[in-house]
Amino acid sequence: MIAIIGGSIAAFYAYKTIKELDKTIDVKVFSKEDRQPYAKMVLPYLISGNRDAFFEIEEDDILMNCEVKAIDTKAKTITTPMGLYSYERLIIAAGADAYIPQYEGDYDGFLFGVRYLKDIEAMREKLRRAGLRHIVILGAGLVSLEMAHAFVKLGFSVSVIASSNRILSQILPKEASVVVQRQIESLYPVKFYTSNDVEVIYKTNDGVNIRLKNGEHLDADFVVVGKGVKPNIEFLDGAIQTNSGIVVDDYLRATDDVFAVGDIAESTDAVWGDKRLHAIWPVAIAQAKVAAKNAAGLNIETQPEVSRNILPIFDMDIFSGGDSVALDGDAVVSNDDGFRMVVVKDGILRGFCMVGRPINYGGLVRLVRDRTRIDRYDISDLLFGNV
Fold it and tell me: What pTM was estimated for this model as a whole?
């Protein structure tokens, strides 16, 4: 039996790929959730509307409410509340949970992460009874801004608290971050508090009161936390080598007959040349397909990956990839047709970011991922996607 741990998009595609290779292969998916796999990347959009987010695994092939508590790679078993299961090969697609810091105060039932459908369902219930019609979001990354946009669409105002000195600090340089912040604050009921953080949160008769470190107080119906994710590796308890996630080789193998994919896998990065997490949808799907084929007996090598994001929010598109904040290399910026920046070092495109109208992002991703020399291109070609 090939066992798959997880209920994510990676788990679904691993299952689907194996069944497409050979329907007779016995596959069991172990999910801690009470429903079929769904697309977590659309969770912010489910706040303001319905979208088709579910994927179907044969009923006999998925065990729901069945969280894996431990694995034994020597005995080739996994331990669950429903019993002990033996496997021949194992694919770990356990994903990641929202990172939620502990704050001083009393806010039970009024603070939510954005990782599971149950989080969205709980927020929807709060929104139905909201009197203040104001939401506070902690963190100013991708998910936080998607959530802010969703709340604004429903007629709520939003305050976004960022401990860093700018919004989207992981993917945008300062200049681009300022462009995005100005546009949002000038056109929408959103206010950003950068270089700030929460000091204490208390329940009130109407919701919660948040005291910030600069002394300001904010009243809100509830608080949403978007401060990144942490891979679900606790259940491994030393059974497999881990760092931030599970370290895998170029075949996505963590150890004999055990593979890891998606948000939990640390694979080779094309830009930095090290092992790191690539917690994005297209990488999760690509890895799931390769790991599934290798678990089924093939021997397929993966290529190094590059982190990239496309963020359509507040009537603008933000596109970034690789070293998009120019940590290493020469940055070239254009303010024509929005904000555009490419980062080049030793004749290689290391990264890029665009705010406004992204063009041919697939071509830019390919140049970064393949480490292609860019001598034949003008810088303007790179800035405007003519590659």
Answer: 0.93
